[in-house]
Amino acid sequence: MENVGSTSGSGINKYFLKKNLKRDIPSSIVVFLVALPLCLGIALASGAPLFAGLIAGIVGGVVVGAISGSQLSVSGPAAGLTAIVLGAIASLGSYQVFLLAVVLAGAIQMVLGLIKAGTIGNYFPSSVIEGMLAGIGVLLILKQLPHAIGVDKDYFGDEGFFQKDGDNTFSAIVHAVNGLSLAAIIISLLSIAILVFWPKIKKLNTVPAPFLVVILGVGLAMAFQGTSYQLRADQMVNIPLFNGWDEFKNLFSTPDFSAIGNKQVWIVGLTIAVVASLETLLGIEAVDKIDPIKRVTPTNRELVAQGFGNMASGMLGGLPMTSVIVRSSANVNAGGRTKMATIIHGTLLLLSLLFIPKLINMIPLACLAAVLLVTGYKLTRISLFKHMYHKGWDQFVPFVVTVLAVVLTDLLKGVAIGMAFSIFYLLRTNMRNPFFYKVQEEGNKKNIRIKLAEEVSFLNKASIQVLLTNIPKETNVIIDGSNARYIDPDVLETIFNYKHNAYTKGIIVTLEHIKSHYTVPKLNTNIVEKINH
């Protein structure tokens, strides 16, 4: 396993180790290039000022990145919140009142982290997380194709199947094919070729391929100027421009705290907190899954970091944020190793806004779409589907269902549908494994010994009831609970009722090592405490 930490006694901060910065700096450039149009697109779709998306991206990178315990997660405005934000701004009547709801959402998230609600993230099945990642990969490919060929009315970064422009994911591709832009296609194809083949040339791969792609894109866009193939303004990155410090200060907004007594503000704040927390926990789980070093993010600390970030974003006039899978995946695929990649990307967003907005606005969306197309391919590789298939149907079915549901609905709905299928298989497995039994024959009499498992929950009640009901008449039944540490009260009631009524069928029931009451076993924290100390 690669060491990303500091050496003992060196006194050097682990995030500034030279070997990590060699990976983190190029990766931060990639994430910056991907995040820039996403921040702007999500702000546009949310009905908020474009600058609000950039604020959220900057705060998500610098503030959340510094506080978070994740080394690879990248936070910023999320497509999953656009519908909520758009409706909230309209219903609350002003953007300043909405910002108050964002601040409250952040405070609620911090409380959720402090009461350890982040442990919910431990209950997302692996098959669903893998399906979510693959679904995002498919979605990236489908959603970026129109941008790559130069025709898309939808905003950059949309993840929903049904789009605001009336199209859906598939019809948008059809319409794009009917109005191709030759310049965009050339830029996209050359960009993909560089992204695929450049890293394989060891002598040249010190220069990040995405950085080369941007230089190529800007150069080709300039070459096409003045021709019939010239790229339009909506095919380019579009950072807000300002003249002087006064105009820059006017881009910021502050919350209207006079609306603190408005019930609707609290409802919006709670809604944002819950949705943003769920997306963050899903994002964190997904990033840990694809982390090559397999580090585990402390989820409660992540909720606190996200809460602090949302409070800061709201105070400055920014959108609410979450841990974002697309940006985080781009970070992993670009070779990021520590949180410095996230922090530097946020810094680059700020510096580009302050010093080189005109230069940034010369970048074609087609070359950035190429970066996301390659990222999408890596997330949804064929080998992943083969791997999940070999794990068995109980893993493969929830995986495939999650992929399809994410593509055909949106992230949270897709995961919820995948969870439902995963729970079905979990229930079926639990129903089949609460016990084992042995049948012995002595003359005309059958002896059946039923040995209960270590944990017998309510989920096992149905299968135990079916087994007991089907035991033939004139049988000796021994129900052995010697292995059981816990038996659910409903299951106990079923067993005792069966013993009471079995004599009517000539069945003699003997209970061994079964108590009348069980308490839930407590977690032994002694080992954890020893480790912590």
TrEMBL record:
Bilayer-spanning residue ranges: 25-44, 50-67, 98-115, 122-142, 172-198, 210-231, 265-287, 308-326, 338-356, 363-379, 399-427
> Where in the cell?
Membrane
* Keywords annotated in UniProt: Membrane, Transmembrane, Transmembrane helix
Do you know which InterPro entries this protein is assigned to? SLC26A/SulP_dom (IPR011547), SLC26A/SulP_fam (IPR001902)
Has the keyword Chaperone been applied to this entry? no
Q: Where do the SLC26A/SulP transporter domain residues begin and end?
A: 21-390
Its membrane topology: Multi-pass membrane protein
For this entry, the protein name equals SulP family inorganic anion transporter
Organism, scientific name: Pedobacter albus
Q: What is the lineage of its organism?
A: Bacteria, Pseudomonadati, Bacteroidota, Sphingobacteriia, Sphingobacteriales
